[in-house]
Design a protein that fits this description.
The protein is of the alpha/beta class and 456 residues long. The protein folds into 2 domains: 105 residues, Urease, subunit C, domain 1; 321 residues, Metal-dependent hydrolases (TIM Barrel, Alpha-Beta Barrel). Helix content is 37%, strand content 21%. The chain contains 14 helices and 18 strands. The strands form 3 sheets. Strands 1, 2, 3, 4, 5, 15, 16, 17 and 18 form a 9-stranded mixed β-sheet that branches. Strands 6, 7, 8, 9 and 10 form a 5-stranded parallel β-sheet that branches. A 4-stranded parallel β-sheet has the order 11-12-13-14. It is globular and about 65 Å long.
């Protein structure tokens, strides 16, 4: 059993002092407040102890193409032209590249305050769609990379069968994604087999990519494949997508899904940037999580999620890093709040009256992320996985401020790299601001970048 002592910790009911955690088997066994520090405790001194976040949505391979899509072409740039760049980049990736990029990306997530990730994994095959000998080969690379880093994982293999809403065949880079249901089921089975020897906090879910990439029969099949497991899906990200789905499916994406699919607390709908007020309220009523990726949504020009209306109606949200352009928990949450300020012309929009904005955003994202990943975490209390991180007020120039004000300072005025310690299911993988094996992951990532950039 390990013990952590913090002078200040954010518990479900608010800040508590002199908190002593006992951790056994990766889970919090006991939380004592007004406790006495013991000699064998990991003493955090003045650091603030906080619940770490589950990253609800990541395509880790895209971390290596960050910055490569910021040149304007001959016509108007958009999500769709960005996607073309992504497909060309994808053609260069080997399984070793996928592993090295994933490991470095997961390490960065840990250093940012994420204790677990939902990897929305759709790179299943070789260039051109040729199968690997093991159809789950790339899933095994993701699972292995997460274990090397020590980051928690909900692995989400993606079913991607069509190149558009009219059932057109896959082409170009999409061929590395493609599968029918039987092949997809085999990939899921292969990943499940690998997870039997993985840490106890590693789980599986399924991800029908979008209403662009599956049909009604496939959607029904994939959502029944792992009963009770997380179901993640892109939805209503782009206006062109909304129009296409309305034309070919007979309704707007979220409207159709709420009327025809068993959306409930096990679902996480990613982006949701183009919804009507009725769809926003309807989604909140299902208990599903809205998986928001504010940095990527800003970078791709997706749009702004109706967070105010959604939260007012009891909606749960989680935070994802999606394209992994930048991996920063503070910046994701700050961008979410700022987007609502752009939309409403108001300030401190999402916080409860008289409450800390950062505290609300952090605790909400922690709860929503844990739900979306099917992970027993998100709160510092007995029975939860010990997903924790700490901030040093002196390092973030917040010394002398109360706990809530220090948290506000970190999220809205501080640097993005101020996480001092992080535990994932009790695994202490970030110490003094760096992952314990950063050097080796960074070396392999740099080597991979040099190779890939020479090919572009």
């Amino acid at each position: 059993m390990q013990h952590i002592f913090a002078k200040s910790a954010l518990l479900p009911n608010g800040w508590a002092t002199n908190v002593r955690l006992s951790i056994e088997g990766g889970k919090i066994f006991e939380v004592e407040t007004n406790a006495i520090k013991q000699k064998t405790d990991t003493d955090l001194g003045e650091q603030l102890l906080l619940p770490a976040i589950s990253n609800v949505h990541s395509h880790s391979f895209q971390r290596a193409m960050a910055g490569l899509s910021e040149r304007r072409g001959a016509s108007t740039d958009s999500f769709w032209t960005w996607r073309d760049v992504m497909y060309r980049f994808l053609d260069q990736l080997s399984v070793d590249d996928i592993h090295a990029i994933a490991a470095f990306t997961f390490m960065e997530m840990a250093e940012a305050g994420f204790a677990a990730v939902g990897e929305f994994h759709y790179v299943h095959h070789q260039t051109g769609g040729t199968r690997y000998n093991n159809v789950a080969e790339t899933s095994l690379q993701i699972i292995d990379a997460a274990q090397e880093v020590g980051l928690g994982l909900t692995h989400l293999p993606v079913l991607y069968s069509f190149g558009g809403v009219n059932g057109e065949p896959l082409k170009g880079g999409q061929q590395r994604f493609g599968s029918d249901f039987n092949l997809f089921a085999r990939m899921v089975e292969g990943a499940q087999s690998a997870l039997r020897t993985a840490p106890a906090d590693y789980h599986m879910g399924v991800a029908p990519h979008s209403l662009r990439a599956v049909n009604k029969d496939l959607l029904a099949q994939v959502t029944q494949l792992l009963p009770g497991a997380p179901v993640h899906m892109h939805i209503a990200e782009q206006l062109a997508e909304v129009d296409d789905v309305k034309t070919h499916w007979g309704a707007r994406p979220v409207e159709w899904l709420l009327e025809n699919a068993p959306v409930d607390k096990h679902w996480c709908l990613i982006h949701c940037t183009h919804m009507t007020p009725e769809e926003t309220i309807g989604l909140a009523d299902t208990g599903a999580v809205a998986g928001l990726c504010p940095i990527t949504e800003a970078n791709l020009g997706d749009g702004i999620f109706e967070a105010v209306r959604f939260v007012e109606h009891g909606g749960q949200f989680g935070i994802g890093s999606d394209s992994d352009l930048r991996i920063s928990l503070a910046e994701e949450l700050r961008t979410l709040e700022h987007s609502q300020r752009y939309k409403t012309n108001q300030r401190t929009v999402l916080a409860k009256p008289h409450g800390s904005n950062a505290q609300f955003l952090l605790q909400s994202a922690a709860a929503g992320g844990a739900q979306a990943l099917g992970r027993q975490s998100g709160r510092i209390e007995a029975g939860q996985w010990a997903d924790l991180f700490s901030l040093d007020p002196q390092l973030i120039l917040a010394d002398g401020l109360s706990e809530s004000l220090a948290l506000d300072y970190w999220m809205f005025a501080g640097r993005n790299d101020n996480v001092h310690n992080l535990w994932s299911a009790g695994r202490h993988i970030v110490k003094d601001g760096q992952h314990i094996n950063r050097a080796s992951f960074e070396l392999k990532f740099r080597q991979t970048l040099r190779k890939l950039r020479a090919l572009l």
